[in-house]
Amino acid sequence: MAAHGEADQLGTTSDSDQGELNETDAPGKSEDAILFASDDFDNLTYEGLAEEAQKPVQKGTIHAIVRQSSNDVDSRSNTPNNIDHDSSEVSAGEESVEETAEQAQITPRADNTEVPDTVDASRIEIEEEDAYNPEWKNQKKHVFILSASGKPIYSRHGKEDKLVTIMGVMQALVSFVQDAKDQLRSIVAGQHKFVFLVRDHLILVGVTRGMDSTQQMLLQLMYVYNQVISVLTHSSLNKIFKQRRNYDLRRLLTGAEKFFDNLLNLMDTEPGLLLTAVRCLPLDSSVREIIAQSIVQNAKLKDLVFALIIVKNQLVTLVRMKKYYLHPMDLHLIINLVNASESFKDAESWTPICLPKFDASGFVQAHVSYLDNDCEVCLLLLSVDRDSFFILSEAKDKIKARLIRYNALQAINASIKRTSYSTQQCGIPDLRHFLYKARSTAQYTSPELEAPYTEPAEQERLFGMYLYLHHRIHTSGRPLKILFHVGEYETLLGWVTQGFELYAVFGPLITKTSAIHAVNKLLRWIKREEDRLFILNSVTF
Amino acid sequence: MAMAGGYQRNAPGDGEFSRMQMRDVKVCLLGDSGVGKSSIVMRFVTGTYRPALESTIGASFMSKSLIVDGTGYRFQIWDTAGQEKFRSLAPMYYRGAAAAVIVYDVTRPHTYKSVKGWIQELRSFGPQDIVIAIAGNKCDLEDLREVTEKEAQEYASSIGAIFGETSAMTAVNVEEMFTALARQLPPEEVTSHTGSTINLRRQASKQDPKKKRSCCGGGGGGSPSGQGSLSHGAEPSRRQGNRLA
After folding, report:
1. Predicted confidence (pLDDT) per residue in B136-172, tens digit
2. Per the similarity annotation, which family is this (chain B) (predicted)?
3. Is the confidence metric ipTM above 0.95 for this complex?
């Protein structure tokens, strides 16, 4: 949409054009980051993925932590406990695979009855297949997961079992190209982009006619793949398919559909996933310090790796075990877990979750509870000890009590009610909206959506412009540092440095000079507010 | 809440008992997805009912105190998720449990079939003296019933489990079931405090030498069917055919 306007790029960093941009100080910068992304969007290419596929997945972290804590001298006899933990971990995996093998023998029978049906009654099938439904066809973005043998696992729209034929075609395309020792990456057909990601035993396909670039779709498919891992772990996914190539994975993903749906919706509305950065709830740094200290003082427990508080998809605080970092992609999966589940609001919960970037081979156990009656402030305690529920539950009570005593819970609630901040507060007249990501801390900030972006259609258009801007700046063939783009309804300025990424949207009439001037002013404003908008100190147990 | 275990045990009858003595009872609810485990727990603990609860993720924990025959019981209830992917986690919850409630849906026969699998698993890998109750939930949906009360009742009697048809919606038999569980508990043992202590005690005093708890290699569902009576035979003290009033 915006792309239809005339584009004027400053693809280089030549002094004449950039003279006024001042990048010496990146607001929100911190050497002491709470989140850590070892990789970046720019690394996300098929070449990078192929390389990554050669490397073993991130694993062993959980075992390392368990092992280390068992080395600690503790009055409690650690050894039986940990052996128990280890063996139960392993046996749990084994059990599930055994069960799997059993079920797998049952499943094909059920499927076989299904498949001939579709062949015999192909005419009926044509009417039933979702692919012929105009409403289905008109969806802007599709995401499919299928097994390497072509079994449907998930479809964002429609029922996956009514898409057997189309998934068969996808599988055929992928394996046809694979046969030639090559790899299918994407297909562009008219307005549609088809993007393929083949990982382990899964084929993920994204189809869009929106502004998403191939690479951005690839990132989204990575999130979806990570969501699968998050439910099953990489190890058991591999074990299952090694035992039976045509296993129906839907059995094990029952109930997880809502996580995929929700994740995909988040990806279309929440810039944080695109930026692989997290938004923090604006809070005075002193209040945030109190909250972090409440956690440190009451939850200093061995085997507790991360403790965090999330409010409305925003991070309030994160306390981590020394040496271990949470990857923003993992944090988005945690946010998605909380965001998509109503059931956590009823009672304290104890659930396994695999964080693929942290350790793809095993689960950490999450103690999930809400600290307030309105169920907005969610505390998560992530431990590698499966038997620590009651200890964590006790810790949670103490944390809550201290947060109430110091009015911190009140401060959080006040911040929720206040809404984040308005673009006007930045004092830049022509600025309509912006995204600012501090790269070193993997956090971003952006103002509330205001007029003219109040309607969903307009918000979608705005998001499309950000996708475009982000894509142009990160195009792997020709990465840009600065992009000034004059569109029909607005003017965009994207600027990437070592320290930050800034995407700003102005009114259509702004000149390049005043936009640069405005951006410098904006950076100064963010700098002034950085204590409130970002978490700059990393707190460890 | 959490009492220092050691002192309590060494000094029974101390001033501590000015309050009512509470016996902690760990209960876990098992059964297929959507049979109403969470609804039963919610009915029991909060006295409320919400239609179409979201499926549980992992497991959730609630507690509720109840006085039965003049004794106070504090039920610590693990409401587990019924979904397949959480199946392998179940041992974590029944391992230390004093009682298990296996729930099925009277309108869905396959959920009743799963009950037998759970019984086998508990017999093979669960605690020796675990008290089992079978609950046929959604008994308010008489028109849609697919599992007869008689069939389930007879099965429950044959394995010495408590049985009752419940309805979380109308509250029928929900509290009664927990009351029946409390009555079925083996005579007072040391109130559970630290997990390790209790395990040692149980192994020393109650383990049946004929039954081995190891050899898990075969997997939970692997043992042949119809063996419920075997493990039952090992515990003659258990009353048979318990029926909710």
Report:
1. 999 999 999 999 999 999 999 999 999 999 999 999 9
2. Belongs to the small GTPase superfamily. Rab family.
3. no
List B residues 4-23 in contact with A (Cβ-Cβ < 8 A).
Answer: none
Residue A354, min C-alpha distance to chain B (Å)? 12
Taking the Cβ of residue B117 and every Cβ of chain A, the question of whether any pair is shorter than 8 Å is answered with no
Q: Roughly what angle, to the nearest 10 degrees, separates helices A456-474 and A214-232?
A: 100
Does domain A2-29+422-533 fall into CATH 2.60.40? Answer: no
pLDDT in tens, A157-203: 988 888 999 999 999 999 999 999 999 999 999 999 999 999 989 99
Q: For residue A249, what is the DSSP state?
A: T
Q: Which residues of B touch A394 (CB under 8 A)?
A: 2
Instruction: Give the mutation candidate from B38, B85, B113 for the A interface (greatest A CB count, under 10 A).
Output: B85
How many angstroms separate the CA atoms of A322 and A64, rounded? 13
CB-CB under 8 Å, A347 with B57: no
What Å distances lie between residue B185 and B74, B142, B203, CA to CA?
13, 31, 17
Domain with CATH 3.30.450.30 in chain A: 278-418
Say if the Cβ atoms of B60 and A352 lie within 8 Å: no
Strand ranges (E), A441-508: 443-445, 482-486, 491-496, 500-506
Residue whose pair of structure tokens reads 């005075």 in the numeric block: A284
Question: Whose structure tokens read 């609001």?
Answer: A345
Task: Judge if the upstream peptide bond of residue A452 is cis by omega within 30 degrees of 0.
Answer: yes
A462-516, pLDDT tens digit by residue? 999 999 999 999 987 888 999 999 999 999 999 999 999 999 999 999 999 999 9
Q: What pLDDT digit, counting tens, does each position of B215-232 carry?
A: 433 333 333 333 333 233
**CATH placement of domain A278-418:** 3.30.450.30
Task: Report the C-alpha gap between A143 and A156 in whole angstroms.
Answer: 5
Of the CA atoms within 13 Å of residue A489, those in its CB half-sphere come to 9
Instruction: Give the up-direction half-sphere exposure of residue A450: CA atoms within 13 A in the CB hemisphere.
Output: 16
